[in-house]
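PROTEIN DATA CARD
Card holder: NAD(P)/FAD-dependent oxidoreductase
Chain length: 382
Origin: Paucihalobacter ruber
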Amino acid sequence: MNNSPNFYPVIIIGGGLAGLVSAIHLSKFNIQVLLIEKNSYPKHKVCGEYISTEVLPYLKSLGFNPFDFGAKAIYNFELTTNSNKKISSKLPLGGFGISRYKMDYELSKLALQNGVQILQDSVTNVIFLNNQFTISTKNNGEFSSAITIGAFGKRANLDVKLNRSFIKQQSPYLAVKTHAKIAFKEDLVALHNFKGGYCGVSMVEEDRVNLCYITNFKSFKKHKDIDAFQQQVVFKNKSLNYIFQNAEMCFEQPLTISQISFQTKKTIENHMIMCGDTAGMIHPLCGNGMAMAIRSAQMASLVIIDYLHKKISSRSEMEKQYSKMWDTAFKARLKTGHILAYLFRQEWLAPMLLGLISYFPILLPLIIKRTHGKPMTAVECL
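Structure generated from the sequence above:
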């Protein structure tokens, strides 16, 4: 093993959910981890902030219980069409709401308690040579590792540096997120459709409501600004109109993110193990990206531990096992997400589909099951 002071068995690039969870998991097996994150904690992120309870057994085994930090239990789902029809259903597994501001911050503290080193810096390049990674940073020079996890989010400069195929293609999606204060059922997650998009609504800690919508940028840019778009498009949905017009907004300005890509990505790039959104995103319509990030972190951690403990004989076998686990867990989910997103993009077809669901409400929990997984197993730590 390399004895250089800048060498780590594992370096994780990106300190979102996938990066933090994998860092905590690995640290519990006495594996030294350096996590490099460009932002400081806590920080708000554009995110729906709803998570399926499938992740709870695993998170609790790592020492993190979201309900200790004010998470709201969610059992019910409501969908409204852009013609203001309403469809309701029970969530097959249930979920919970917690902000990324709170969750990432508390996970970062847990990681530090477990001995993870967190460096605030930007990674500028990653080179794999002679079975070792060299990671260049903007402010702190170079580091090396036996294994590198890429968990740097939806779209980053590093994707360009690595010449990843999806980064060359324009993506038409724009997302907007804010928090608000308004009376809202804390056990409910709602998905309100409007022309060209939809908005997720659910409670998080401190009795705040997360409002996060996604739309086609082509539709958005026809309007002067966010306010004009909301007034002329979003508020045609009566439920959204009521919420936005009567809520006390908690942010001075909403957060926005563009160029969101749902294209297929590689789970291994230049021998880096990709996790979370860096490996692939399910369409927000399916509302389960956070759970996918956490599950991918568990899968990466399991194969890395086996590789470092010589239970997996080679790097190529470790990479194959991770890719196979990813496909088994997510391939069907992602396909369902792509199909649903395509169908809902067809403006003539979406109202018919929603009408069909309203006549046959049994279809809704079946669709939800197709985009969610079974409860995760707890990790048995050293």
